[in-house]
């Protein structure tokens, strides 16, 4: 077991660096002269930057292209300029060095991974965003989604839970479905994988937020991430392309000697914020005041209040320093035809809430062979992830989680009783949060292996055939034991549960490709193929209660009382059979055409709708290559794109179109119990996929020799045939059935810009992305609206209604507080009292009731943005990244429970005491806190639906690259310091405006979400 990394381990990193410094070799300084010319016409190049690598020593060439510089005899010189390919040359003791620089057209000729192949960036006709290591978020990232959060226009990555290994939500150009999955399709090295976690959820801990399905990947193994956004790019994935596609390509070996890299990093984390609650004295004083307002005697004396002090601030008891250590070892190299890459990764993270953490063990092997006519590749990833969960979720009272109980528990309680047991109270129906964290054992182990192997044969230089096999296998076991020392299990003498889940995903794929330059003006590429994929998920669970002692945990369920035994199992299977084709045509290297089609047959569709057809077409015009722009040097590149296509969403769940049978009650015959079986669902042979059509118009540009480049896109997405559960006559024996009705619309534009502001020896690069997405429900069939959302004591806080955003917040508007002297009797709330909230009479009928509910805000932001800056000077690099959203709302259920507590003795938000309404403090912001005599509304109001806009300093990293020429046996040495989530500017009063207690659902609310953490990391990376 690797020891846990604390501050002394970080000091060890710096001690190691000091030892390495002692190995420096001393080289002699020499004066170097030379000339830089153009490789195209051999003309002299003035203004070329000449820099001694990993130092601040540099110069520029004069008008004749000549330079002179002092450097050590074993140094490396770097020659660079905007518009030219950078060259690095070893000095090797020479005093004269002449260099020829070539025009830099690599950016346009860069190969971008697309569905079932690659394309030159200059030939792309779709909206594809490509990110590689230089674009990824800095610091220790534990999953792939964290690498790209905030980095791509039109892609919103939300950390639904900040718990180690917690789930994320990704929306590409908005939400497209009400009931089906809205997450993108992930394709790893050509294998479409299951993007749902197989870690079983449990009612014992009321869990809502799922685990991150990409925890099995090591982010350090990622070479690039391509995000396919428009229909031209995603239609090749047919019925799985409506939500966008994320292509993940892992690192491959390169020809040359063995390269070994070892990196070590350690991090310390802390909670960025605490929710301000009343301390013990404020709490007791408030309860006295509220009782006095109701003409009741005080509960506490002045002496008791003075003696209690500040009491127990429960959030301080459950929050702690989090620690992380991350080790990465990789090997790569190869010969003329064979390359290899292998890596091992170990990560151990302890969360900022007690009893939370994750351990990951990941291994990868990538092998590639390229012969004259034959190519072969193997990508293998195997991992084990161990989760340590903290009890959390959306339940209430004894079922509430650690964070909820820490917020609302009585602050006058002590942590423990004099006899060492956890303090409990019968006055407040909540657990001791620290006891809950320590007495609920909740661990899961997930083993996952995914692999793909391909073989490609070239019959002709322009004709090849490729076969690809892939598999993704997961198994998970989760053990939960609740001790009798908790309130929820004291009556049952312990509760144990074991849940297992297994998933398999197998792929067979055959494609053929024909690519040929027909003549100097015409280029053609044709792709055709067949794929078959099968998914199987099975589960098994067992539980027991009433154990003789807690020490057994889940190791012997048979030790529980037999009358409490529970058992469950399940299995689902679905298959996808597909045919696909694509044509790319290039005329005069200026006019581009891409057309694709896919036919998907899914076992999830009804008998009458087994196959769906998904076509797309895209056009591109390289305007820069036209004669009227050819000689305008300020424009380096300019391309107009337009695409239209159809994609689908078949992730509607299995067996929705079939008659289903299930258990229905129990009967006794001849003294023996029998379970009845009956139909549980009506069939719908016409059930089919949800269909999305999308129009995209884009402009790619590059100016001033690639010094300023970017893209602008406008898109319009229309989704129809949404899967909804509609009411049907009770005479059928059922109340609802699934049908394809309803529609959604997402429109918006995206803007991305990259600039080189200053060049060497000091370099400053910036990148900006900005996007606007507007979501609207366009059709609900015969339904007038759909209410949704349930957590704690609050239900139906969102609405789905034609003309409104999906799952908009729905409730009452607070227009202030009733004051003394107001004519309350003539208001819409005639039985209210001074100090109670005043609600808006929306329909002007003179009374407040459910008809006065209205839209309180949208969970979708008006716009999102990200700004990154990189500064390089010699061996130093400084980068910082800002990310933010604007215009969205978030329902803060903790506020509703504080202002309308189910129990008088629950703790309250501090502002309820410091600025509550009283006759002497006639504020219009907060009520008196006195329980209302008559309730006119629910808890859902405009005070609890808060502004969730924010600007966050996502990361700052300072890096130093030691001069590699100075080290014996070391090719490169890098050290870095990183800060993540250093500050957030927001008006939101909860822990984090980005969270949601409902995982990947479009329903968003903050209810006891795991808080965001601020992280400081130190790391070192060594290449041998």
From TrEMBL:
Cellular compartment(s): Cell outer membrane
* The entry's keywords: Cell outer membrane, Membrane, Signal, TonB box, Transmembrane, Transmembrane beta strand, Transport
Assigned GO CC terms = cell outer membrane
The answer, when asked if Cytoplasm is one of the entry's keywords, is: no
Q: Where is the signal peptide?
A: 1-27
Q: Transmembrane: present as a keyword of the record?
A: yes
Specify the TonB-dependent receptor-like beta-barrel domain's residue ranges.
417-982
What positions does the domain TonB-dependent receptor plug occupy? 120-245
How is this protein named in the record? TonB-linked outer membrane protein, SusC/RagA family
Source species of the chain: Dyadobacter soli
């Amino acid at each position: 077991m690797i020891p846990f990394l604390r501050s002394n381990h970080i000091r060890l990193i710096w001690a190691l660096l000091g030892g390495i410094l002692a190995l420096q070799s001393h080289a002699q300084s020499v004066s170097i002269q030379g000339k830089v010319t153009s490789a195209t016409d051999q003309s002299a190049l003035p203004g070329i930057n000449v820099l001694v690598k990993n130092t601040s020593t540099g110069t520029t060439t004069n008008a004749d292209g000549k330079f002179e510089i002092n450097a050590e005899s074993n140094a490396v010189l770097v020659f660079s300029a905007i518009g030219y390919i950078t060259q690095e040359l070893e000095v090797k003791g020479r005093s004269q060095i002449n260099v020829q620089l070539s025009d830099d057209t690599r950016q346009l000729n860069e190969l971008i991974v697309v569905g079932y192949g690659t394309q030159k960036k200059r030939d792309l006709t779709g909206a594809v965003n490509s990110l590689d290591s230089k674009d990824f978020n800095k610091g220790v990232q534990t999953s792939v989604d964290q690498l790209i959060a905030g980095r791509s226009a039109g892609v919103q990555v939300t950390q639904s839970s900040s718990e180690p290994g917690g789930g994320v939500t990704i929306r590409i150009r908005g939400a497209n479905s009400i009931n089906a999955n809205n997450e993108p399709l992930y394709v790893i090295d050509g294998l479409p994988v299951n993007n749902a976690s197989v870690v079983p959820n449990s009612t014992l801990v009321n869990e809502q937020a799922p685990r991150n399905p990409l925890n099995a990947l090591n982010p350090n193994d990622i070479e690039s991430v391509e995000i396919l956004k428009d229909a031209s790019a995603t239609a090749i994935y047919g019925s799985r392309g409506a939500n966008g596609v994320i292509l993940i390509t892992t690192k491959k070996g390169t020809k040359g000697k063995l390269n070994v890299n070892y990196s070590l990093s350690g991090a310390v984390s802390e909670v960025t914020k605490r929710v301000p609650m009343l301390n013990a004295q404020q709490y007791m004083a408030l309860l006295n005041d509220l009782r006095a307002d109701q003409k009741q005697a005080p509960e506490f004396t002045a002496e008791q209040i003075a003696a209690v002090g500040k009491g127990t601030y429960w959030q301080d008891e459950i929050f702690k320093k989090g620690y992380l250590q991350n080790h990465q070892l990789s090997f790569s190299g190869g010969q003329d035809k064979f390359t290899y890459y292998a890596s091992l990764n170990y990560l151990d993270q302890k969360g900022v809430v007690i009893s939370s953490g994750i351990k990951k063990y990941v291994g990868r092997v990538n092998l590639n062979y390229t012969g004259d006519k034959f190519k072969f590749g193997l990508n293998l990833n195997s991992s084990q992830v161990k989760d340590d969960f903290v009890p959390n979720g959306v339940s209430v009272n004894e079922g509430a989680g650690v964070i909820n109980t820490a917020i609302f528990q009585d602050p006058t309680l002590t942590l423990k009783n004099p006899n060492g047991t956890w303090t409990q109270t019968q006055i407040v129906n909540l657990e001791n949060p620290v006891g809950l964290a320590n007495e609920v054992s909740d661990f899961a182990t997930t083993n996952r292996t995914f692999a793909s192997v391909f073989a490609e044969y070239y019959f002709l230089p322009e004709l090849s055939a490729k076969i690809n096999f892939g598999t993704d296998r997961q198994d998970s076991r989760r053990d939960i034991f609740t001790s009798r020392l908790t309130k929820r299990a004291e009556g049952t003498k312990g509760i144990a549960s074991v849940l297992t889940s297994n998933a398999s995903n197998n792929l067979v794929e055959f494609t053929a490709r024909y690519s040929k330059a027909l003549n100097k003006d015409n280029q053609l590429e044709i792709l055709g193929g067949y794929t078959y994929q099968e998914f199987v998920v099975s589960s098994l669970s067992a539980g027991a209660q009433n154990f003789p002692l807690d020490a057994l945990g889940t190791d012997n369920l048979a030790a529980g009382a037999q009358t409490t035994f529970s058992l469950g199992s399940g299995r689902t299977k679905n298959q996808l059979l597909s045919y696909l084709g694509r044509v790319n045509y290039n005329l005069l290297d200026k006019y581009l055409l891409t057309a694709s089609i896919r036919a998907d047959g899914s076992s999830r569709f009804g008998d009458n709708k087994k196959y769906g057809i998904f076509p797309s077409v895209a056009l591109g015009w390289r305007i820069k290559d036209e004669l009227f722009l050819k000689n305008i040097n300020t424009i380096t590149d300019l391309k107009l794109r337009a695409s239209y296509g159809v994609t689908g969403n078949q992730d509607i769940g299995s067996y929705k179109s079939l008659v289903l049978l299930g258990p229905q009650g129990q009967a006794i015959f001849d003294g023996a119990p029998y379970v009845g079986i009956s139909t549980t669902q009506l069939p719908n042979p016409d059930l089919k996929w949800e269909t999305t059509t999308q129009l995209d118009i884009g402009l790619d540009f590059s100016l001033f020799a690639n010094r300023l480049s970017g893209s602008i896109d406008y898109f319009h997405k229309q989704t129809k045939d949404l899967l909804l559960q509609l009411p049907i006559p009770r005479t059928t024996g059922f109340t609802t059935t699934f049908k394809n009705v309803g529609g959604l619309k997402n429109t918006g534009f995206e803007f991305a810009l990259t600039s080189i502001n200053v060049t060497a020896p000091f370099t400053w690069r910036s990148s900006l992305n900005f996007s606007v997405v507007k979501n609207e429900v366009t059709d609900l069939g015969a339904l007038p609206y759909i209410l949704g959302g349930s957590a704690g004591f609050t239900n139906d806080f969102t609405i789905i209604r034609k003309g409104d955003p999906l799952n908009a917040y729905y409730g009452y508007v607070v227009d202030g507080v009733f004051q003394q002297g107001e004519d309350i009797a003539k208001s819409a709330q005639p039985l209210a009292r001074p100090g109670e909230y005043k609600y808006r009479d929306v329909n002007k009928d003179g009374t407040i009731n459910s008809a006065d509910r209205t839209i309180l805000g949208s969970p979708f932001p008006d716009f999102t943005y990200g700004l990154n800056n990189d500064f390089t000077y010699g061996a130093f690099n400084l980068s910082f990244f800002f990310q933010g959203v604007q215009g969205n709302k978030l329902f803060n259920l903790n506020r509703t429970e504080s202002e309308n507590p189910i129990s008088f003795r629950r703790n309250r938000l501090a502002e309820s005491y410091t600025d509550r309404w009283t006759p002497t403090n006639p504020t219009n912001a907060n009520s008196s806190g006195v329980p209302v005599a008559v309730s006119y509304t629910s808890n859902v109001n405009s005070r609890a639906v808060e502004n969730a806009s924010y600007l966050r300093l996502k990361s700052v990293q300072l890096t130093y690259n030691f001069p590699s020429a100075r080290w014996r046996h070391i090719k490169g040495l890098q050290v870095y310091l990183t800060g993540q989530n250093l500050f957030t500017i927001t008006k939101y009063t909860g822990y984090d405006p980005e969270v949601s207690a409902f995982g990947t659902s479009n329903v968003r609310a903050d209810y006891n979400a795991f808080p965001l953490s601020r992280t400081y990391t130190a790391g070192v990376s060594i290449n041998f």
